[in-house]
């Protein structure tokens, strides 16, 4: 959308922004610190490894930048790909961390100033504040001026570093660089994690993508080119520096701090380049740190700008000045934050937190690309595409996680704190103002629904017969037995399955017995013969399985039912054993409300649900003599195909209409509602009876479902485990059944596995809430 921002940045200016954001503390401060960390010259390899590990994120960011050349960079990609929550984390975190880095760069020249002029160290804070104000003004006046200034600074710095390399190579002491590329060096990963932050600026090009000329070509070239150039520069400069400076001796002499911090480049230049060369290197160091501050401010200011444009920050931040064509408030706030950090905060320690968070951002960038590639984004059409997808991104995420374990506890805790603050900000400010979701979540939801549709089609297309055991106990009322039998006969009718009514009679435990169970075929009980509402089916032969009067109309509906009496000492195990031996496909059992309050022990329902080798239907009987409407509800996730099959079979036999009930949160995104509606539409094509679809917008699922299910004659929903876990975490399905007045059938599919906590949370987030 038009924003008023000018596309003023060409290839070299764009590369200068990235190089300026990278070459600063990475080459002028960190080599000595990393040398101590790795305990040797393998610090050179650490810089090389870090550059290689960042390459996947550079490729991913390049691709997404050519598809979405908008200011905001990694925030935009993560927000579009993974949703507003992760986008907020990326945006807020990047903003703070770039501000921290900018502030650190402004005071990071202290060792070099002291090196050439020891008496001016006390004025460093006023000098740093003056530079911060200067860079803020430059960025407010013109992005092009900021880019041009960056180009000049980086150009001078690269020339001086080149001069340092050429002049220093003849003076390298071979014994000091031996093992520079030794993978077996101790602490190599820790050193790699330390210098990782040196390359954070590579994707900052994307933060100003909306102001880049010909972004489809310029951004990938600038991003990859700047990374390759900076990596080569780091490796060469660090190799020469440690070859000239005897770091352990310099630490012992007090020229460097015990942790290796200090003007290592100044020391090296003083040994080989003379006063003029030393002055040039010190000036380059100051320019490099100044360029880092300038690039950090330029990039950081675009995050609140982009977030405001997406409704994730107050709208004032997206205002572009009519006079300067820059986001003045965003730049001014970022500059002000840097000034406050310079004056009041221990920037050096806080800035180390940026390493951990930048690694997380790189991981999110790689993940976001996968979200776009696999998600439902019709207009995602990048000019440049990342090579070796998805292995490049998987490697980037895996290596990032590995390096993240090496950053140390305090930096990791700092990144976690910024993340927590971002999450709190999201829920307090962002969530009430946005209903978008990421491409990955939309894509996953579509994939899940498509997979569920395929499973449903396969089940309905199998035409498998279903044999049903109606398990009646001594405590089952006659009216409930009738309704359970009716449901069992409806379920088996369409597939020509057999129905067995097993009356399980509990007998006292007898000593010195193995608790044997006996099964006897019996006549139809009186409750079945007196049931005038049982279905009549003249097409089935009785097969001699039940002795019933031929002149009873009701009895003709029972001609295919096998009545059994099973005497047993333990009803639950007997039901499971009988269903297993007879290879039943379903067990129909009365739902026992009293078991819902049992925290310990195992009731009849729980035992059958856990051990039955087939599907289980728990019936909550409130009178069922036919149906005009059957409600099929899902609390979260997709509909299990077996639940749909049961509802469809009963509706077919009773002539009822099905109503698919599903809830989504209030204010749900159009993308989510559309995916759920398309899923329902596909189900309606698979089901064999007339089916209505009701998608309910409510934050109280049970209340919403019960309100719409109340008018139905039968509710079909899902079983849930009883016992301690259900008592502690709640059973929404049971609450739904208890909130309606109609008969309810809770279905557990055959061979079901209770979904784990993570799976339930994911499905709940994807479809329900």
Automatic annotation (TrEMBL):
Occurrences of domain Amino acid permease/ SLC12A (ranges): 16-429
Residues passing through the membrane, by range: 12-36, 42-61, 82-100, 120-141, 148-166, 186-209, 221-244, 264-289, 328-347, 353-372, 410-430
GO cellular component: membrane
Claim: Transmembrane is one of the keywords in the record: yes
Pfam families with a match to the protein in the record: AA_permease
Chief site of localization: membrane
Record-given protein name: Amino acid transporter/nucleotide-binding universal stress UspA family protein
Species in which this protein is naturally found: Halorubrum alkaliphilum
Native organism taxonomy: Archaea, Methanobacteriati, Methanobacteriota, Stenosarchaea group, Halobacteria
